[in-house]
Write a structure and sequence with these properties.
Blueprint (H helix, E strand, L loop, with lengths): L1 E8 L7 H12 L5 E8 L8 H12 L6 E5 H4 L4 H6 L4 E5 L11 H17 L2 E4 L2 H11 L6 E3 L17 E6 L8 H8 L7 E6 L6 H13 L6 E3 L5 H10 L2 E4 L8 H8 L4 E4 L4 H4 L5 E4 L4 H13 L1 H15 L5 H12 L5
Parallel strand pairs: 1-2, 1-3, 3-4, 4-5, 5-6, 7-8, 7-10, 8-9, 10-11, 11-12
Helix pairs in contact: 1-14, 7-8, 7-12, 10-13
Length: 348
């Protein structure tokens, strides 16, 4: 059995799509002849201190020499030159989405991250990305060879079709509250629609970005929507399943998605969707299953939400298309198979 060491920064149990992806891959790789161990890295990445980089250097040097290093891009893209030069053996980078495209970064930091990530990805023997869009970004904007990249889209578990609620119409949005998720824009887009009977639930961790949470809470308060919007925080899987089951409309206002796992989860349940087409979101949720709007365009989002909330035939048509598309989504078995093939050297 081949041996791989998966270097992951922070808490692997964190409730984000990236960490969920990592967990599912770790569970499934042994089925394809790959024994994988987790190497926890400092949680400061992608903004490590010199002490964090020194600790990372020591940790990676401790891995077995024959083991393939699979490095989560949240850390790998911020490795400095000394650390990259010290790497031994085969190195595979896993890029969920490019670090420099994170929302809210100062321009100077974006430039710095782009440079460090390009240098790191050039050092990697191979790169796994979670969407075709991310592959295009690496090829077109970072000069990475297309032959060096394998796409391994996230898997989606089968699910029962949602039945919805209907009165009031339940709107669901899922994901950690971060600037990139655009939740405050969603609240602003819903504010002119108070004449319609709806409720919004945002299910996502509230402890990852205090400023984004404060901005969201202020948007709710300033628009007088305290009785319409529920910030559920991080919820257990059974509770999230109930939210999906009772939802009438799924909405994502995210400014950028490397794939959009929650979009796939909504499709697997046959939910009609309104989405901001940022990053890979537009490809993940096709035109038939969702109303697409320009990311960051609040007026367009309001218009799309009003259409979806007032036109049941439209919602039914979107829901049917989402349900059909959900039957064709990749499985976690396929995701792990693709990554195992890279680790085993079956793809160069």
């Amino acid at each position: 059995m081949a041996e791989a060491v998966f270097a992951i920064p922070g808490d692997l149990k964190s409730a984000t799509g990236g960490y969920a992806y990592d967990r599912r891959v770790i569970e499934s790789l042994p089925d394809f002849g790959v024994s994988v161990s987790v190497l926890p890295l400092p949680d400061a990445f992608p903004n490590p201190t010199p002490a964090d980089l020194a600790e990372t250097h020591h940790l990676i040097e401790s891995k077995p020499r024959d083991a393939v290093l699979l490095a989560d891009g949240l850390a790998f893209g911020a490795f400095n030159e000394d650390l990259l030069n010290a790497l031994q053996g085969r190195v595979i980078a896993l890029v969920h989405h490019p670090l420099f495209l994170e929302t809210g970064l100062p321009h100077a930091r974006k430039v710095e991250l782009k440079a460090t990530e390009e240098r790191a990805l050039c050092r990697a023997n191979h790169i796994v990305v979670t969407s075709r869009v991310t592959k295009r970004i690496l090829v077109d904007n970072m000069g990475i060879s297309t032959e060096k990249i394998t796409v391994a889209e996230p898997g989606t578990d089968p699910a029962q079709r949602a039945t919805g609620t209907g009165a009031p119409l339940q709107i669901l949005s899922v994901g950690t509250v971060l600037p990139r998720k655009g939740y405050h824009l969603l609240v602003e887009a819903l504010a002119p629609l108070k004449h319609l009977d709806w409720r919004l639930t945002i299910a996502g961790a509230l402890d990852r970005h205090a400023e984004a949470v404060a901005t969201l809470r202020e948007a709710v308060r300033a628009n007088g929507l305290d009785d319409r919007v529920t910030l559920a925080g991080k919820v257990v899987p059974a509770t999230l399943e109930r939210y999906y089951e009772s939802a009438d409309l799924f909405v994502s206002a995210s400014l950028f998605e490397g794939y959009g796992m929650v979009l796939a989860e909504a499709m697997a349940r046959g939910l009609p969707m309104v989405i901001a087409a940022g990053g890979a979101a537009a490809e993940t949720a096709g035109d038939a299953a969702a109303l697409h709007v320009e990311a960051g365009n609040v007026l367009a989002l309001t218009t799309a939400l009003e259409r979806a909330l007032t036109d049941k035939k439209l919602r039914d048509r979107l829901a049917d298309a989402a349900w059909e598309a959900g039957r064709t989504l990749p499985t976690w078995h396929e995701t792990a198979r693709r990554i195992a093939a890279v680790i085993l050297g079956l793809r160069s």
